[in-house]
Amino acid sequence: MINKLENSLFICILIAFTLLNSAIAIPLGEKIAGSGNNKGATACSGCHAANGSGLGAAGFPRLAGINAIYLANQLNAFRNGSRDNAIMAPIAKALSAEDIKAVTEYYSGLKSASSAITDPNVSLSNGANVVLRGSWADRKLPACEQCHGPGGSGVGAHFPALAGQHASYIKTQIANWRSGKRKNDPNNLMKTIADKLNKDEIEAAANYYASLDPLKAGLATAKQTANLKIKNVSSSTAQSMYFTPPAYNTYPQGPLGDSIRNGEAIFTLTNSHVTSKAYVGNHQQCVNCHLDAGRLANAAPMWASWPAYPAYRKKNNKINDITMRIQGCFTYSMNAQASKVGKAPDANSIAIMDLKAYIYWLSSGTPAGETKMAGRGYPKFAEPKLGFSPKRGKAVYQKNCALCHGRNGQGTLLNGVTQFPPLWGKHAYNWGAGMHNVNKAAFFIKANMPPGLPNSLSDQDAWDVSAYINSQERPQDPHHKGNEQETKKKYHHGKYDYYGKQK
Amino acid sequence: MINKLENSLFICILIAFTLLNSAIAIPLGEKIAGSGNNKGATACSGCHAANGSGLGAAGFPRLAGINAIYLANQLNAFRNGSRDNAIMAPIAKALSAEDIKAVTEYYSGLKSASSAITDPNVSLSNGANVVLRGSWADRKLPACEQCHGPGGSGVGAHFPALAGQHASYIKTQIANWRSGKRKNDPNNLMKTIADKLNKDEIEAAANYYASLDPLKAGLATAKQTANLKIKNVSSSTAQSMYFTPPAYNTYPQGPLGDSIRNGEAIFTLTNSHVTSKAYVGNHQQCVNCHLDAGRLANAAPMWASWPAYPAYRKKNNKINDITMRIQGCFTYSMNAQASKVGKAPDANSIAIMDLKAYIYWLSSGTPAGETKMAGRGYPKFAEPKLGFSPKRGKAVYQKNCALCHGRNGQGTLLNGVTQFPPLWGKHAYNWGAGMHNVNKAAFFIKANMPPGLPNSLSDQDAWDVSAYINSQERPQDPHHKGNEQETKKKYHHGKYDYYGKQK
Fold first, then answer.
1. Which domain range does residue A394 map to?
2. pLDDT at A19
């Protein structure tokens, strides 16, 4: 009786356990991570830790919180050899497509703290300099966060999060880009960047990223980002043939210094900064046309504008001071008509005043009245013999630009902060902006795009891709008073202007 | 019968003639001018011509239209020997006080054309340069018209009209000031000026004045004055230790040049210029504090301000750009509250834009961010041991300043154009202007007043006269909101401030 009872009980428990087990079955991704797939892929957690935080001492990367598609791309790269790695190659090959999807989504969803440590002998300030500023002036080296996002958040499937990543891993990867052992970067971007970095910069940047909290990355509000302090950082090397603005960390003390700093924050975060966002009707920022916070020669540097105003401008047929010039940027490039306030900031507004304080400071030492500073605006070059073609330009765009600006030109916004600016559509510059002219945009693109690879496009490609971008629809020209043909006749009769001809 | 009849007729005619003669009796002044006084004074017209236009070939001056008191003063000077003249001395001595009054009023009222001729070998442009510009920078030489009025109109009893005066006479007088043969100038002013002029300048200025139409002098409207063109004039010699602004005649071509020129006119004619007068509530002009059209070192030159803005100002506790700084001048120094518009011009107004274009051009080549240009502002010096006393200052004022600014500080307005600015009273700068501070005004006065005689007052006199001027009543501080004690407490607690303590 008792045995029968025991047997029945045992069977019941067995059934219950089986039922329970099936109810709380471990998902495939977690299973592979914890135990492998029994088909040759060993448990990921063996090297990358159960919480996905990796193992810095051995150079095993943190996987937690990394974009799943990016991780999947890496497994495929191990499979096809574009990442040459003896450990990962057989594991990746042993994973099915379903396995890869499951395990990468699993790791992407983990929200663990970082286990990375930083070398106390390495200057985090120097790291911040590389990560937040880069060194555009002398080497066309964009800041790391230009692509990897604020606080190392990562951006989309192409630019992995680096916050809390192990310094050892970052350093190895840079070495691998340089040596060609790793070559799965889109458009050769990381190879180019890695080649530009020196040993100290690599060490400093890797340690700086390792020091960042991955749970806070990307959550930085505009204000937090604006308040990032970089102290005791050496200035970027001078641009030999161009004017050198004051070094990043040399703001004056006192109220003027505060105004300058705020102006710089407005300049780089225009559509999300508390002082300026009410005047911005799209996802554009000053820095999108004036690279490196308005410092970079041949990228419309602000220090070349300050000494050249007041000046007469055909655009509005009057004398413009720098205030009106800046207001023009808000009106057209930042489409103020669609903003909360509905127009550019007033001349005496804090936004204008702080932007001017910043530009003034950047221009320290420039001689008043100098209208031809070397590096002003974008370098002009002749229209190619074949002219320009949106159709040809589309291919150039999808190959070189879509990675950041999106296949539909929509750009990328992270927590309300523009990471990559839209190039057309309702969040782009409007039809009154200078950039809508095919020639002007071609000049900008050729000299500056993609970041880190200036002058890499042929003249023809630059004109064609500019034509493709500028033949797309964008917000109405504020000059428009209801009749498009009239507006076209009055303001858009140039041959480099698609207004009224756009799709 | 016929004889009797003839006699009666003769008597009748005699009576009629006598009656007629007494009815149209020649006034005393005209009589002396035409026939002398029969007491030793010969007819003035013998040398000075019947219409008072003088005789250039003989060096006899034009008298027509010259201020009567000035002329009387000269006759008295011939009498007492402070004008050493062998021909005029006995004539002047032969005239009674009544004769002098009559004849000088007669000549003063004549409106004849000029008979002066100009030497075709002398450059009138160079003359214009001396007369309209002077040479403040290198020799503290004020423009002649600074005292003699627009177009050589003459100003009051002290500064005779020079339009249409014979060049030979002007040259002789300058020679006489230099030699001491003539010494009836108030405060040694003309002796000082004459000593500073070189031979070419004397020749050019004398011929320039000879060329001017006396019937149009002083009638120049602000606009006409503003449009005076000086061409092909060499620039004033550089101020060796100070920044040298562009030469007067080197405006750029095109709309910017037009804006600069208009800005200069606004700067020098602020309260009468069509572009700016609606914003000016008193009789002040920019040039009254910023001498030589804003060019002069140690007289708050504009080229030292341009590179120093934006800047933090305690006065309003915020960052000010050059626009706000200029607006402050309108608000306080030009008392905009009492103007037609009632406030300073807007940031984007033509008045502000053209003033900025002018200041920008004056500042050509100054390095942005330079806040300590040599010659900026007014040179500071310590308060004297005796402090400052309005009572002592009154005597200094009446001796040195009243000549131009008036015994009651009222200044001089000619046809609506300020010749000498008021220093107190309802047309003076208000209680919010920087100049109302005893120390600041002392600094200005010491370095710049009287024109042509900088640093001629002792430190003590400069402080005392400043105290006298600034202890007088003037328009209310625009900060005032109804309670003078409150305004005083908040804005006027400094020891150099008579606000609330004025008479």
1. 390-491
2. 57
